[in-house]
Design goal:
By secondary structure, the chain is mainly α. It has one domain. About 80% of the residues lie in helices and about 0% in strands. It contains three helices and no strands. The radius of gyration is 12 Å and the shape is globular. The relative contact order is 0.20.
């Protein structure tokens, strides 16, 4: 069941980050990848600054969205060059 939750959270986080950064999602597979990588990035960045959501689903989604937005922002900076 854990992998299914991870997939759903990753897809949702990638979709939300796409809406925030670009105004549209990227499709299920790309949203999933962006969301899962974003969850990893967000978890690390938030732990560095001492934020811990306590493992709640909402906290996991917020963490993944924050990380996915950071990922998309970094990619947009690289694409500009």
């Amino acid at each position: 069941m854990g992998i299914l939750i991870t997939i759903l959270i990753g897809a949702l986080a990638g979709f939300l980050a796409g809406k925030i950064m670009k105004g549209a999602g990227f499709g299920f597979v790309v949203n999933l990848i962006v969301g899962i990588v974003g969850g990893f990035i967000g978890g690390n960045v938030l732990s560095w600054i001492g934020i811990n959501w306590g493992g709640t689903i909402i906290g996991q989604i917020v963490t993944a969205v924050i990380g996915a937005v950071l990922l998309l922002w970094i990619v947009s900076l690289i694409k500009k060059k």
